[in-house]
Structures are given as C-alpha cells and as structure tokens.
Amino acid sequence: MRSEPLVGDLSEKEILARISERTGRAENALVGPGDDAAVLRVTGSLIATTDTLIEGPDFRSEWSDGYSLGWKAAAVNLSDVAAMGGRPTALLVALAMPNDTPVSRVERIADGLREACERLAPGCAVVGGDLTQSSVLTLAVTALGDTGGRAPVLRSGARPGDTVAIAGEMGVAARGLGILFERFDGTAPDLSRLTPAERHAVERQLRPVPPLGLGVAAAEAGASAMMDVSDGLVLDATRLAEASAVTLDLDSGALGPDPQGALGGGEDHALLATFAGEPPEGFRPIGRVLAPGAARVLVDGAPFDGRGGWDPYRDWAGPSGS
Amino acid sequence: MRSEPLVGDLSEKEILARISERTGRAENALVGPGDDAAVLRVTGSLIATTDTLIEGPDFRSEWSDGYSLGWKAAAVNLSDVAAMGGRPTALLVALAMPNDTPVSRVERIADGLREACERLAPGCAVVGGDLTQSSVLTLAVTALGDTGGRAPVLRSGARPGDTVAIAGEMGVAARGLGILFERFDGTAPDLSRLTPAERHAVERQLRPVPPLGLGVAAAEAGASAMMDVSDGLVLDATRLAEASAVTLDLDSGALGPDPQGALGGGEDHALLATFAGEPPEGFRPIGRVLAPGAARVLVDGAPFDGRGGWDPYRDWAGPSGS
C-alpha cells in the first residue's frame, strides 16, 4: 500500500485547490487564480522577468525538498525585479511534473513560494499558474513588479567616477554548493554533520535570501546601474561593465574574508550597483567605475579575465602581483 | 559530419542573440530583453497568464515543427489575455531544451512566436525569457496584457436572460488532432494527402488562429462574462456556468455543420461570452443563460453531463430526444 497520494491520483482541479489554499493573496491583485488570467493594479511601469528551475541542471531532488524548491524559484525571480529598482508584486508559476510526484511535495513547493514572498517581498504572492505533466520536474516562474513611478535602474548607467557597491552575501551559496557536492553527493544533506558556518552556506544555497528591499533603496538613492549577481561577481560585473561601456575596478580588500569565493560566487543574488554619490545603507563599497580600458573588470587595478581566469597562485599574491 | 549546429554547440549568449534578432519589439516595452527584467508601460490594469507546452503531453515533434510550436505557444497564451477583454502587449518565454536540439529549431520557434504576435496581436512581442537545458523540450510562456482602463471580463458575470455567444471556429482543431492520430501516427503529416478541409483542420490544430481582437470588442460591447474555449465547449461552458452560478442552454442548431464536434472540441480557442444586449459583430448567438438548474449546461433544453457524457446515439436524435 502506498502511504501518500501522488499527483497522478488527483485531478488537476484537486491539485490546484491544494496549491491555491497555500499561496496567499497578492496585495495588488484585482483578479487572482481561477479565471483565464490574473489582473493586477500597477503603479508606474511594470517589471517582468522569468527564470526556470529544472531538475538536474538547476537542482537535485535529494538536496532540495519541495519547500526549498518553491522558496528558491521565488527568490531568484524576485531578485531580478529588485535589481531593476522595483518592488515585486506577483508571481505566475508554471509547474510541470511527473505523475509519480507525491502531492505533499507539490504542497511544500506552494508553501516555499508563499513563505519566500512573505519574507522577502511582503505583499507579493502567486496570482496564477499552470499545471502540466512532464517527465522532468520543472518550475518556470514569472515575477512581476512595479517601478512605483521611479525610472528603472538598468545595467547600462554606470559612469566613470561612480562607486561600485554590493548588498548581500558573496560566495556563501557557492560554498554551500561545494559542500553538497563534496559531502552529500547522491544523498540528502545531514546538516547535523556540519559546522554552523557550513550549515549556513548549505541553507543559503538551497534557500537564498537576497536583499530584495535594497533594490528600491538603491533606486531611491539614485543608483546609476544595478543587477543581481547570479552567475558570479566577476562574470556579472563584466556584463554590467559591457552594458555601461566602462571598466570596473574591484578592491579585493573589500570583499570580505574570502575574496576569491566572493569573486567567483553567484547564487547569493547579491545586488551589484553603482552610485555617483554615497551608496545607501546596506550597500558596501567594493570598487570604482573607470573609463573603459582593455579589460572590463580589474581586481586591485590588475586585469581579471573572467570566472575561468582566476588563478589563485598567479593572481592572489595581492595588488603587486607575483 | 553534422550538417547543422546544435544547441549544445553554442553558448547561451549566442543562442540568445539568434533568438532576439527574430522576436521583434513590443510597442509598450520601455526595456526589452538583455537586462535583469523587462519594463513595460501599462494603461489601466495588467492582465497576466501563463501556459506551458511540453513535448509529449502537449505536442509531438514529428507533427509540430519549431515554427508551429512557437506560434501555438504564443496563440494559446494571447487568447487568455483576450478572454479577459484585454489587449496583449508582451510575452515572456522560458525555453528549456535538450542540448541536441538543432539551433534552426530554436530559430523557428522564435519566428513562430513573432509571427503569431504580428498576426494575432499587433504591437505585442517577446520582451524577455530564459534558456535552460532539459531532457524535455518545454515552452513556458507568460502573456501580459492591458485592460485599457475597462473592467476585465470575468467568468462569473453571466446573468439569467443573457445571450450566450461564440466567436471563432468550433471543433476544427480537435478534428485536426483526430486526423493526425489516425493518419500520421509517428510520422510527419503529409498535407498533400489531405482534402482542403482536412488540411485546414490539421493546420488549425498545429497553429490555432483564435479571434483575439474580438476580446476587446466583447468587453467594449459590455460582455457580462467571457472565457476562451480550450478544453471543449461543454466543459468550458460548465466552468463559466459554475463561476456565474447559472445554467447555460446551448442550441445545437447554432453550432454549425458538426454540432457534436463543436460541443466537444477545444483547442480552437474560440471566445465564449455572454451579453445582456446584442453580441457585437463577430460573435454568433448559440444559446441563453438560465437561472441555475440541476445541470450547469443544457443542449436544446436537455441535460448534458459533460464532455464524456455525450452519446451521439442517445442524444443526437435532436431536441425531441429518442
């Protein structure tokens, strides 16, 4: 006898009912789930972004329970709204899953989506979605947000002389991923075997806590450019520098206790921004914007040729090189 | 030697470049693809909906080339915006695919997305998206639209005495699917072996042409309720009747030359609406709204118990029964 119902045992309507009783209500929703589409009040302009989590390339089921999956799918999308200087208002969730997925896993995904919204972006909630059958568990989330009447903060506005600043953790989620690969390959992570710092890193990898509210704060403080760091600080800084046609010079001494981890680490979804004036509270200066040079990103004034180019033995003797 | 590049041969940036040169520009986009998120101008309230096409349950690659897939993914989502009485303004596309997908297939998906927007919803285009690797080709599309200051048309507003009306084809796409299953199971459809009517049906199944502009027309004419018919006329009419707490009585004589096909057929994405007054041009009266009775949907005044309940031998002797 099976101990719990599977997705294939229930009708679409029954599954939707279990999801929608868990996802809460978006403050700006005029029409929520249940009609052909949701309808939302928008103040200013609309921000819209989509990002997908797929079993295999993006997560492993032995590491990510349903709650973590729902949380992460929400967090990474909400972060892209914050990175435009906006306030997230609603999520749409396209969930595709095998028929042998336990219904409890779907319910936990819904719980994770709701609690990430409540914690990271109060007022935001799931307003619609789609359920499909697939052999691969797939969460495609669209996040919507609001500029609140301010101009959106683009990647392209950094100007020479601006301060480069960051909000949020750097390198922690990447360290957590390393721990999962090294110590829990193929098994559920036993957090009791980890030090507090290791446990924190694993938790941040599975359930990132990006500094979402600081996106609006940066926009209000006149950020000239902003983006969220999802693929690694150097790689994303290179993108911002390219979009702005400038060079960014990062100060390794400002990158915390593990500068190498910070430069390579991505999935914390820190906010990288540039400011002509003083960065607002919550942002830490980590460098300055220069006129465009041969390299898009420098570390301590020396060329840094991207994620793969970081050689700790060659580059890590400090500003003087070796 | 391979004759053409595969997705796995190119970087994400190269694939994105090939897609974005094909997807056109949305009229209301303030910021298009390339930043953390898109930014859109909205007039009135925002309409948002998502729907996913997955290889296997939703399409077969031997029947649907990339162009048809892109077209259909756009059309079915745009139709949900129209069904709220809105004008579609933008699409976000999360595309997940195996590394051995030919790049030309991705390019044709982009072509299909663009041309469906141009033909069905001028001014609308892809404004953002996401690329991921998956073993199953998956297109999760979010469509955004605008109420233009009018109230959205919900499923719940039908009142006794209203006229039930429909715009668009009925049963044609379902007939096309039947032809594909019967005559081209496991092979590419050879349209030259089909009569013109059969070819039309197959084309409509693969590339539906919903009457999108009539969504706004219905809202302007004061439609009391509306939805798009995606799962079958009777099933969807039952949903509208439930949401409105009424009974719908459909007139089989108004359903065209194949009433049985019309009652069961879905994927044409016809617009089903109710009107207190005269339906606007493009809508055909097919019945009336009654006070709620034991059955949610009647056909010619007799109970009809849903999609599976239609028995042509028992029910199809006409209004008098048999």
From TrEMBL, chains A, B:
<feature type="binding site">
    <location>
        <position position="310"/>
    </location>
    <ligand>
        <name>substrate</name>
    </ligand>
</feature>
<keyword id="KW-0067">ATP-binding</keyword>
<feature type="binding site">
    <location>
        <position position="80"/>
    </location>
    <ligand>
        <name>Mg(2+) 3</name>
    </ligand>
</feature>
<dbReference type="InterPro" id="IPR006283">
    <property type="entry name" value="ThiL-like"/>
</dbReference>
<comment type="similarity">
    <text>Belongs to the thiamine-monophosphate kinase family.</text>
</comment>
<keyword id="KW-0418">Kinase</keyword>
<comment type="pathway">
    <text>Cofactor biosynthesis; thiamine diphosphate biosynthesis; thiamine diphosphate from thiamine phosphate: step 1/1.</text>
</comment>
<keyword id="KW-0547">Nucleotide-binding</keyword>
<keyword id="KW-0460">Magnesium</keyword>
<feature type="binding site">
    <location>
        <position position="36"/>
    </location>
    <ligand>
        <name>Mg(2+) 4</name>
    </ligand>
</feature>
<keyword id="KW-0784">Thiamine biosynthesis</keyword>
<feature type="binding site">
    <location>
        <position position="58"/>
    </location>
    <ligand>
        <name>substrate</name>
    </ligand>
</feature>
<feature type="binding site">
    <location>
        <position position="267"/>
    </location>
    <ligand>
        <name>substrate</name>
    </ligand>
</feature>
<feature type="binding site">
    <location>
        <position position="50"/>
    </location>
    <ligand>
        <name>Mg(2+) 1</name>
    </ligand>
</feature>
<feature type="binding site">
    <location>
        <position position="80"/>
    </location>
    <ligand>
        <name>Mg(2+) 4</name>
    </ligand>
</feature>
<feature type="binding site">
    <location>
        <position position="155"/>
    </location>
    <ligand>
        <name>ATP</name>
    </ligand>
</feature>
<feature type="binding site">
    <location>
        <position position="36"/>
    </location>
    <ligand>
        <name>Mg(2+) 3</name>
    </ligand>
</feature>
<protein>
    <recommendedName>
        <fullName>Thiamine-monophosphate kinase</fullName>
        <ecNumber>2.7.4.16</ecNumber>
    </recommendedName>
</protein>
<feature type="binding site">
    <location>
        <position position="231"/>
    </location>
    <ligand>
        <name>Mg(2+) 5</name>
    </ligand>
</feature>
<dbReference type="InterPro" id="IPR036921">
    <property type="entry name" value="PurM-like_N_sf"/>
</dbReference>
<feature type="binding site">
    <location>
        <position position="230"/>
    </location>
    <ligand>
        <name>ATP</name>
    </ligand>
</feature>
<dbReference type="Pfam" id="PF00586">
    <property type="entry name" value="AIRS"/>
</dbReference>
<feature type="binding site">
    <location>
        <position position="80"/>
    </location>
    <ligand>
        <name>Mg(2+) 2</name>
    </ligand>
</feature>
<keyword id="KW-0479">Metal-binding</keyword>
<dbReference type="InterPro" id="IPR016188">
    <property type="entry name" value="PurM-like_N"/>
</dbReference>
<dbReference type="GO" id="GO:0016301">
    <property type="term" value="F:kinase activity"/>
</dbReference>
<dbReference type="InterPro" id="IPR036676">
    <property type="entry name" value="PurM-like_C_sf"/>
</dbReference>
<keyword id="KW-0808">Transferase</keyword>
<comment type="function">
    <text>Catalyzes the ATP-dependent phosphorylation of thiamine-monophosphate (TMP) to form thiamine-pyrophosphate (TPP), the active form of vitamin B1.</text>
</comment>
<feature type="domain" description="PurM-like N-terminal">
    <location>
        <begin position="34"/>
        <end position="145"/>
    </location>
</feature>
<feature type="binding site">
    <location>
        <position position="49"/>
    </location>
    <ligand>
        <name>Mg(2+) 4</name>
    </ligand>
</feature>
<feature type="binding site">
    <location>
        <position position="51"/>
    </location>
    <ligand>
        <name>Mg(2+) 2</name>
    </ligand>
</feature>
<feature type="binding site">
    <location>
        <position position="130"/>
    </location>
    <ligand>
        <name>Mg(2+) 1</name>
    </ligand>
</feature>
<feature type="binding site">
    <location>
        <position position="228"/>
    </location>
    <ligand>
        <name>Mg(2+) 3</name>
    </ligand>
</feature>
<feature type="binding site">
    <location>
        <begin position="129"/>
        <end position="130"/>
    </location>
    <ligand>
        <name>ATP</name>
    </ligand>
</feature>
<feature type="binding site">
    <location>
        <position position="51"/>
    </location>
    <ligand>
        <name>Mg(2+) 1</name>
    </ligand>
</feature>
